[in-house]
Amino acid sequence: MRDTVRYRDARVLAAAKLVREVDRYMIDAGCRPIHISELCAHFSVGRRTLHRAFNEVVGISPIAFMRRKRLGDVHTVLLTGGSDATIKDVAIEHGFIELGRFAGAYRRLFGELPSQTLRRAQHR
């Protein structure tokens, strides 16, 4: 029983370490597109290992994790309202090319369209 617990604890710690390292890699990559195969090659892990680690630690896939982080960054920029950049500019700066999909993902995550966030920030 103890060996099972130790194995599970070691696996969870290894998964958490991998997620932290991938997170740092994603930050360093900026807004450039990152493919799962790139992450697997860089960290010398298989696709299943990478997906399991993310699902175990944060409950979502690595790509969903990256998308949420980037959407969060866009949200922060729009909320600060200090930039003259358009929503399109901000989205593209954060790696979103397909603006319709971007707006849909943004709305699902934040419950409003990017234009509504910007409008709210401007009226403060």
From TrEMBL:
InterPro entries: Homeodomain-like_sf, HTH_AraC, HTH_AraC-typ_CS, PchR_regulatory_protein
Residues covered by the HTH araC/xylS-type domain: 20-120
A Pfam family hit: HTH_18
Top-rank lineage group of the source organism: Bacteria
Keywords of this entry: DNA-binding, Transcription, Transcription regulation
Key word Zinc present: no
Listed GO MF terms: DNA-binding transcription factor activity; sequence-specific DNA binding
Name of the protein in its database record: Helix-turn-helix domain-containing protein
Organism of this sequence: Bradyrhizobium septentrionale
